[in-house]
Amino acid sequence: MKTDLEITPEELAPKLPRVMAPAPARLGELESLLTELRQINHAVNSILPRIHVAINLAIDAVADVKMSDILEVTARHFSVSAADILSKRRPAHTVRPRQIAMFLCKHMTLRSYSEIGLFFRDRDHSTIMHSLKVIEELRTKDEKIANVIDVLSKQIKDKRNV
Fold first, then answer.
1. How far from the centroid of its chain's Cα atoms is residue 124's Cα?
2. Rounded distance, CA 150 to CA 100, Å?
3. Residue pair 67/116 in contact by the 8 Å Cβ criterion
4. Higher confidence at residue 17 or residue 47?
5. Shortest CA distance to 96 belongs to which of 156, 144, 158?
6. Degrees, nearest 5: CA angle 125-107-136
7. Distance between CA 38 and CA 70 in Å, rounded?
8. Mean pLDDT, the chain, as a whole number?
9. For 101, which of 37, 54, 74, 114 could close a Cys bridge (C-beta 3.0–4.6 Å)?
10. For residue 102, how far is the Cα from the chain centroid?
11. Residue scoring higher pLDDT (17 or 113)
12. Over the stretch 82-126, which tens digit does the pLDDT of each residue have?
């Protein structure tokens, strides 16, 4: 017994031209729309980096503290270059200064973990979170680290007030 939803090939054949007729027109419309969407996507992708830079410049202009100031003061304090702190390499003499700079960036600016990660040469937000956790623990256990953070914080604030 055949239900209303079943159709035989013989019954389908006469209906196919009617169903398929609009397809080429719709296909052309779809191709046109797809081309337009690709153009929009390209335009958006080309302008997003410029928007990101503009936003960062605007934030830095009104911010009390810039991440670049934190980097500069931290590098000078530990006698390492800013390039070393930003480097992907992990020699012992740059790891702690980098972690402290990340910690200060989070506590002295309004930047997100992702934004701080981008500043530190495209590091993942989880790396920033790990650094903050490490420094927070060290800060409570090691008075020397706590003092270094206090000194750096004061120098960074003083730099902005000059």
1. 8
2. 11
3. yes
4. 47
5. 144
6. 80
7. 41
8. 84
9. 74
10. 15
11. 113
12. 999 999 998 989 999 999 999 999 999 888 999 999 999 989 999
Q: Which residues contact 77 (CB under 8 A, 6 or more apart)?
A: 97, 148, 151, 152, 155
Cβ neighbour number for residue 71 with a 10 Å cutoff: 23
Name the residue with tokens 């390209």: 42
**What pLDDT, in 10s, does the model give residues 53-69?**
777 777 766 667 889 99
Name the nearest CA neighbour of 77 among 61, 57, 98. Answer: 98
What pLDDT score was predicted for residue 57?
Answer: 73
Separation CA 52–CA 66 (nearest Å): 16
In terms of phi and psi (left: phi > 0; alpha: psi -120 to 50; beta: otherwise), the region of 111 is beta
H/E stretch holding 79: none
Cα–Cα distance, 116 to 136 (Å, whole number):
17
CB 119 within 8 A of CB 67: yes
pTM score, two decimals? Answer: 0.64
Q: How many CA atoms lie within 13 A of 24 on its CB side?
A: 3
Comparing CA positions, the residue from 104, 28, 109, 33 lying closest to residue 71 is 104
